[in-house]
Amino acid sequence: MKVSESIKVSDKMTRDLVTVDPMATARDAASKMRSENVGTVLVVDRGMLKGLVTDRQIAMKVVAEGENPAALNVGEFMTKNPLTSSPDMGICEAARMMGEHGYNRMPVVEGNKLVGIISVEDIAEHAKGCNLCTEGVLKAVSKAER
Fold first, then answer.
1. pLDDT digits (tens, 9 = 90+) for 36-76
2. Cα(108)–Cα(88) distance, rounded to whole angstroms?
3. Going along the chain, which residue ranges are E strands?
4. What H or E segment, with its residue span, contains residue 26?
5. Measured between alpha carbons, how far is 122 from 141 in angstroms, rounded to an integer?
6. Residues 84, 108 contacting (CB under 8 angstroms)
7. DSSP bridge pairs for 106
8. Mean model confidence pLDDT for the chain
9. Which residues are registered as beta bridge partners of 20?
10. Are 117 and 106 in contact (CB under 8 A)?
11. How far apart are CA 46 and CA 54, in angstroms?
């Protein structure tokens, strides 16, 4: 087994999560993104992941569509049931999945509990020495919605 194959998502994921309730407004989510300096918030109800919202979704699905950010709940436009990883998944497999789907971030779930989030940035340092991860990261970046 190669060293890179033994690195798990749990070794690189972010555990300090930024979350909102499904009834939070787009404005609430945007304010939280600004205060926490993140581009994604996880939508959680009673500890269970329901979806995620990105800054791009707020710009494109709320602001550009003329919706009122203070009146539209994130549950109405979030990505529902997002692709997830387990903490035990190999980092290269996570990079491959993210690249295949064009995602820059992927929530990490253990059982039914949200435990982290893994991003292209989290994988990037490791990817320098791992061709499989580099390929996944580059695919994710090239496929990501602009």
1. 999 999 999 988 999 999 999 999 999 999 999 999 999 99
2. 10
3. 19-20, 40-45, 48-54, 79-80, 105-110, 113-119
4. helix 26-36
5. 13
6. yes
7. 118
8. 88
9. 43
10. yes
11. 21
Report the C-alpha gap between 90 and 142 in whole angstroms.
Answer: 22
Question: Rounded to the nearest 5°, which phi and psi values hold at 71?
Answer: -115, -15
Cα–Cα dist 29/113, whole Å: 21
- Give 96-118 pLDDT, tens digit per residue: 899 888 888 999 999 889 999 99
User: Hey, which residues does 84 pair with through a beta bridge?
Assistant: none
CATH class belonging to 3-143: alpha beta
SS3 56: helix
Strands 19-20 and 48-54: unpaired
pTM of the model: 0.82
Looking at residue 60, the DSSP 8-state letter turns out to be I
The tokens describing 87, both together, are 């903490």
3-state percent helix, strand, coil for the chain, nearest multiple of 5 = 45, 25, 30
The H helix count followed by the E strand count for the chain is 7, 6
3-state secondary structure (DSSP) of residue 32 = helix
Question: Can you tell me which residue has the tokens 């990501």?
Answer: 144
